[in-house]
Amino acid sequence: MRVMKFGGSSVADAARIRAVAEIIVDAAASDRIALVFSAMKGITDQLLSVADEAATGSATFGRQCDEIRSRHLEVIRELIPDGESTAAAVEALCDELAELLHGVSLVRECSPRTRDLIVSHGERLNCTIVTAVLSSAGLNARMVDGRTIIRTDTTHGSAAVDFKSTYKLIRDTISPDDPIAGDVPIAIITGFIASDAHGVTTTLGRNGSDYTASLVGAAIDADVIEIWTDVDGVYSADPRFVDSASVLGAVSYREAMELSYFGAEVIHPFTMLPAVEKGIPLLIRNTMNPSAPGTVIAEHTSAQAGLITGIASIESVALVNVEGGGMVGLPGIAGRIFGALADAKINIIMISQASSEHSICFIVRDHHADPAVSALERELELELHQKKIERVQVERDLEIVAVIGENMRGRPGISGRLFSALGEAKINVLAIAQGSTEMNISFVVHRSDRKTTLNAVHRAFFPGEVR
Ligand code: ADP
Ligand code: ASP
Ligand code: MG
After folding, report:
1. Are 386 and 365 in contact (CB under 8 A)?
2. Extents of the domains making up the chain
3. Among protein residues, the one whose CA lies closest to atom 8 of ligand 2
4. pLDDT tier for residue 467 given thresholds of 50, 70 and 90
5. Range 437-460 burial, b when 16+ CB lie within 10 A, else e
6. What are the pLDDT digits (tens) for 251-273?
7. Which pLDDT value is given to residue 384?
8. What is the mean pLDDT of residues 344-369?
9. C-alpha 350 to ligand 1 mean position (Å)
10. CB of 211 shorter than 6 A to ligand 2
11. Architecture of 310-461 per CATH?
12. Is 126 touching ligand 1 by the criterion CB < 6 Å?
């Protein structure tokens, strides 16, 4: 049993969907398969921006809504002979979307709950079309709405999965052990979208369709979970910024988790969890180059020969620095700082404290910087007043870069090589952190230095590799 997930980049237009259909027809000829699809490329971004636009009370959301409608209808015209019923289903979904946006524009407010419902239309529209395309290619295809099989809490925008009920729902819906294999319809599952215990629509976070695929794979004990995208596999660095980046043949689950957590969006960070639990390998493959072997993500320790496996980076982050002589030896200060941030629901990406205890700095997403400062100024009001803490400062437009790899553990000289390379490239480093697992060193630079940094570090660890 193979679970195959196709991302937005694989279904950007009619030509790409046709290529995907060929890959699927081929796979279905020899194997049992279950499929997961994202929204068409760019549609999720467009839905989020149209929701924001409607929330301002502007009526111009109608134009964007029409664009979304015509893009989907165009694919039906090109790919589905006798596509009237599919077109009608797409029209109905677009009408529902327009009504929702109209409501948002009237109340001038879009709650996270409504946003999830709006954004769910991307996956629902695409899967409606893909199911019809595959049926017209002769497959027994059945659309499965992810909201009926993925159960989550109510954290809209990035909901937490309830594994037990999700696995049961998936197994009850997509049984892998049906006796008459030929008659079992192929499930075409909407990725990314889920629902809470009351059936309210939730989403799994950006790139969440990868996660849907691995949940499905783990529930039905698939042999492999394939993530089909627009690159040949996991690269040693983001190929958009580093020309000499090369495809990695194999990476461990832990390395893939670290790389994706630190910004390699080729895979959603949580995707590895269900796969690890069941020991199912993940395979990253390229829809536009299906003969390429891709990258295997599995349990083995890194098969990479080099000191590090890869480099990743998170953009648009801010550094918050809490500084003051009175903090030295003050017990509980770190606990209060992080407690206040947790209460304000601010996610900390990286922490660093100098051993002098004179300052604690941490990194958050840019949009969390102001709420973080307010939360800390409230919590530390007394210490600020007494000048035990001098200030809470923010620096924006930064980037976290992380070098990652299981081979780093216990090997001296890696930091030396890293920071010499940065010094030679005249990159100013604002903060540094190393996890105790020793498979990650992360540091912060100005965002404008991103490309120079990634290339300088890549050259230092992968000398002479040119694609
Ligand atoms: P999909 O739409 O298929 O989910 P994404 O755009 O989410 O595709 O992810 C694929 C993209 O991830 C690639 O086009 C590439 O630009 C980017 N990317 C970032 N870091 C890496 C990396 N280390 N290896 C491969 N791709 C990466
Ligand atoms: N369509 C969603 C997104 O753009 C989910 C995904 O692509 O995996 O984030
Ligand atoms: Mg993706």
Report:
1. no
2. 2-230, 310-461
3. 207
4. very low
5. eebbbbbbbbbebbeebbbbbbbb
6. 999 999 999 999 999 999 999 99
7. 93
8. 87
9. 23
10. no
11. 2-Layer Sandwich (3.30)
12. no
Q: Which ligand is nearest to the CA of 10?
A: 1
Helix axes 61-79, 43-55, angle to 10 degrees: 150
Over range 84-101, report the average pLDDT.
97
Summarize pLDDT for 116-137 with one digit per residue, the tens: 999 999 999 999 999 999 999 9
Which of 206, 210, 216 most suits a substitution to test ligand 2, by most atoms within 8 Å of the C-beta? 206
Fold assignment, 2-230:
Carbamate kinase (3.40.1160)
Identify the helix (H) or strand (E) that includes residue 22.
helix 14-30
Residue 358 · residue 322 · CB < 8 Å: no
CA–centroid distance, 193 to ligand 2, in Å, is: 9
Task: Please give the distance of CA 240 from its chain centroid, rounded to a whole number.
Answer: 17
Residue 146 Cβ contacting ligand 2 at under 6 Å: no
Residue nearest to atom 7 of ligand 2 (CA): 207
Atom of ligand 1 nearest to the CA of 236: 23
Question: Which tokens hold the place of 138?
Answer: 């002769």
